[in-house]
Amino acid sequence: MSLINKEIGDFTVQAYADGDFKTVTKADVIGKWSVFFFYPADFTFVCPTELEDLAKKYEEFKGIGCEIYSVSCDSHFVHKAWHDASKTIQKIKYPMLADPTGALTRDFEVMIEKDGMAERGSFIVNPEGKIVAYEVIAGNVGRNADELFRRVQASQFVAEHGDQVCPAKWQPGAETLKPSLDLVGLI
């Protein structure tokens, strides 16, 4: 079953961000674009490469009005410990959400029940709190922040220009398509 246009559920979680603990709720998400970036666990191998990749692009995401939320089933205390122990994780400025009960992970349908960990899932959530794009991939394959950023930009574009669609590899400023019978099967 597809999660496209599913409204995310109410949630309240603890987070580690900007050197402090804070509470993040669904109300914090409403009204802006968001990326929920689920990963299996802190103190692992592939995860820090992905989180660092996102950290390098974080200012660009913020520049287009999009907040990043990384999420694992670790506690906010573990996020802080990982931050304190790892030079890579110290580069992260976006909120690291703690989901030790798995409630948020289950709402996004990425919980690996037998392991108590999240799949590698990336979700773009619009300002209304609805999922407009997502991918879930195998735990042994890292994701690309550049492609995720492009998808956010494309999602924002089509939300603003409902009569246009973005073709493969679309970048801001590139030509878009207006769906019509003239284009069916010809491109």
Overall shape:
globular
Query: How many alpha or pi helices?
Result: 5
Identify the quaternary structure here: single chain
Which structural class is indicated by helix and strand composition? Answer: alpha+beta
Radius of gyration: 17 Å
Give the tally of β-strands. Answer: 9
**What is the N-to-C order of secondary-structure elements (H for helix, E for strand)?**
EEHEHEHEHEEEEH
- Largest sheet: spatial strand order: 2-1-5-4-3-8-9
The largest sheet is: 7 strands, mixed
Q: Strand-residue fraction?
A: 15-25%
Distance between the termini: 29 Å
Low-confidence stretches: none
Indicate the mean pLDDT.
92
Q: Please give the share of residues in helix.
A: 25-40%
Structure report:
This protein is of the alpha+beta class and 187 residues long. It has 5 helices and 9 strands. Strands 2-1-5-4-3-8-9 form a 7-stranded mixed beta sheet. A two-stranded antiparallel sheet has the order 6-7. The radius of gyration is 17 Å and the shape is globular. The mean pLDDT is 92.
Task: Give a brief description.
This protein has 187 residues and is α+β, with helices and mostly antiparallel strands. The protein has helices at residues 26-29, 46-63, 76-85, 103-107, 145-160; strands at 12-17, 20-25, 33-38, 66-72, 96-98, 111-112, 117-118, 120-125, 131-137. The model has no long low-confidence stretch (mean pLDDT 92).
